[in-house]
Amino acid sequence: MESADPPDKGEHSAVIDSQKLLESYLQDQDPRVRSSAFEALLHLHERGTSLNESLYQSACVALTDDYEGVRTAAVHMVWVLAHMYPERCVPVPGSDEQLRLVDDGFVKICNMINDISVNVRTKAASSLGSLHLVSPKFLEQTLDKKLMSNMRRKRTAAERARDHYTSGVWSSGKKWADDAPKEELDPDSINVMSIGACGAFVHGLEDEFSEVRNCTLDSLCELASQNAMFAAQCQDSIADMFNDEIEAVRLNAINSLKKLSTHLEIREDQLEIMLGVLMDFSYQSRESLRDMLCSMKFATKECLNTCVVALLNNLRRYPEDRLSIWKCMHHLGTNGSSLALPLLPEFLCLHPYFDTPEPEMDDPAYISILVLVFSAAAGNRTALPMFQDHTWRHYHYLRDSLPDLVPRLESRSSSGPSLQSPGDLLSPCVATSFVQSTVDRLGDLQCMDISTATTLLESAISDLQRVSELDLESSASAECLCMFLQCQRLITQLMSQRAYLMAGSVTVDRLTVLVERVMDLTDRLLTLFQGLGNAELALFKQTELKALTFRLCSTLANSQELATQMKAHNVYVTYLTALQGFLGSENTLTDKFTSFLLSELPNIKSGQLSNVQNILHSALKLVQPVTCPVLKRVRKACATIHEPAKVSDNPVKFTAGLTTAVLLIADIENVVQVENIRIQVKYPDTTVSLTKPGASDLKTQSNLAYRLHTQVILSHGHWSESCNVEVGIVLLSDSSLATKFKSKTSNSSDDDRTVLELCKPVKVLISPKPHKR
């Protein structure tokens, strides 16, 4: 134990010596050596070595180095030391004042934003955001842009005129320079603090390179999120970046202001700049601004009215944005219910004397207003008596068609209608308890005869399908259970064919249809649903094994070709071996059927086909339908197509033989492997094409949530009449051994992966024109 101390002391001294050695090279005449010395010291810091505080002065001197690489490394070194020793005091040159190291380092990094090199400016701008311990007085100076002349602040003409007016002394103009400064300043006496931090973020936001502007926005947003007062001060600076010429900078500014929404209120003078983005051609810019408006607070009701008018103009110019605009209207009404109340008569076109006509419900602009009004009425009950009879009818219609955007409202007095939407009849608690009771009824499923089990399964499947339609929160769990019970119903139908299979008189076509249906359902269960536990995955795989066993028995009994039988046997053995590895690694329970097959796996591998057939016949006698526990926190992979519209009477016209592009906008959720997403197009001549969207077409919205914005290319070849083309979004399932049992279909891809629909396809009416000769 005593011999362990000397090596530690020796190692510590070696580290100190190495730092001193590297520090001596910081004054080398070759800039490459100076840069390498800084980088070596930074590598020591990354490996856990504590750097010496004395390096700070050397780093500050290197900030004025002639070599770009040295200045970049020096900025990084100042940033590291400001994090390591934030409260250490350093002297200010030419003054008796001392500053905290983090404040002095912040000022010096701010000064580097005016560097001649774009790389140094980018490094400095990106380093400022993480210095959270900087004093507020230095932070506020970064937004104070002062004009300097002869080392003095140059005041504007308005400021000079105001000072003359208050003093009562005006320049006569008869004497030369009678309004000149009274004193001259020594340049050496100017404090670095008053120059370096002053207007640093303003200069960064006005830089000619977009990389510097983006990094400045990131740092500004990060520092403002830590200080509410500073966030209010930088609001105007961020809002000005909405007019930047680079789309990436505009998006960064929009997202930065959204992150600061808890500290800010939008004023009327800022709305004109912000709402101009709604006229942008870029869909992503318009969508980002609407997302920002969803979380912002408005100062006055005029701000809300101006925003609503701008959104309606956006809807008129870009009709494909309607769902996003409705979502924005919902949040505007929810967050600003008190501001929307005095505007309700104008929104609903109410008049104190005249009865206004009933608007058309197929007008997207009117639906936008109703979504705003109903969302505001949910937070302010005084708005309910203002609703007319047709407004209540429209409420019930929208409550059914847009349940996510229209909240539940209490019905008015008995003089009006008191209908209740079907979506309000089933609360989440009632849906969860109903699903639990449905599963509890299936507890003795294994002990029932085939007819009773089939009847009970059909009843449970019907109930779960209805629950998945009524309750959105429980729809994924209910649909997953419904698919699993459909597999069990198909298993009971296979059990009824077991006697005919053993006798060799089974109908091969019927058995094949049942097996492929089970395998398709299990493939959907394993691919589309996320959040499943190991026990549920084991149940799905064992259900798939039962279907494969029936299929192999049918192949061995009815196929006359030995090669076909051997191929099916080899694939079955490979699948059973993989299943054994999965069940063994997860320590999950198995039923009697699976346990028997796993115990006979050596005999199945090495046995003859006749012996394998006998083993499979013995295993089929153990097949029984099973139930599944209630699945909680299950999410289903799905897609929602916003554009093209589901119902449209406007055909897409183009010349026959050429191509046309159709805009596709969709939201995709709960997909882990995004590279498996495909765009499927079905033509009237039964041909199907799969297209992989580009990487830039998918934008990440949140965890496992993406926005697809792309152009679908449609072509026309062998037909000349106006027909509907189905456009949908599908997911390719992972290549599994079970797919090798499936027959080739039109939906199968080249690599034998199954195509699973994420949503119902949308029909697009296209009208090709014949060639002109």
Count of the domains: 4
Our Rg estimate from Cα atoms comes to 36 Å
Q: How many strands, what sense, and barrel or not for the largest sheet?
A: 6 strands, mixed
Proportion of residues in extended strands: 5-15%
Query: How many distinct helices?
Result: 32
Task: Report how far the terminal alpha carbons are from each other.
Answer: 99 Å
Task: Describe the oligomeric state of these chains in a short phrase.
Answer: single chain
Q: In one word, what is the shape?
A: globular
In the CATH classification, which architecture of the largest domain applies?
Orthogonal Bundle
Percent in helix: 40-55%
Spans of at least 5 consecutive residues with low confidence: 1-7, 147-152, 187-194, 413-419, 735-751
CATH topology of the largest domain: Hyaluronidase domain-like
Mean pLDDT: 79
CATH class term of the largest domain: Mainly Alpha
Number of strands: 16
SS content category: alpha+beta
